[in-house]
Amino acid sequence: MLIETMPERAGHLEPANLPACERRTLPGVISQRACLLYGARWMLAAIRDAVHLIHGPVGCAYYSQTVRQKIYKVFSTDLGEKEIIFGGGEKLEEAIREAVSLFPRSSAVLVYTTCAAGLIGEDVEAICKQAAAALGLPVVPVNCPGFGGVSQGDGHDVAAAALLEHFIGRGSAGTPLENSVNILGEFDVQGDLKEIEQLLQRLGLNIICAVSGRATMENMARARRARLNIVHCGRTGRWLARRMEERFGIPWRKVSFFGLDATAAALQAIAAFFNRPEEAAWVEKEAEAARQRALPYLGRLAGKRVALFFGASRMGSMAGAFRELGMEVVLCGSQFGCQEDYTDSRRCLGRGTPLIDDAHQRELEEFWHRYRPDLLVGGTRERFVAHKIGLPFLVFPQETSPYAGFNGFVHLAREAAALVGAPVWRLSKNELLREEGEEKMAEYVRCVERGKKENGRSSL
Ligand code: SF4
Question: Which residue intervals define the domain Nitrogenase/oxidoreductase component in the entry (predicted)?
Answer without folding.
Answer: 35-418
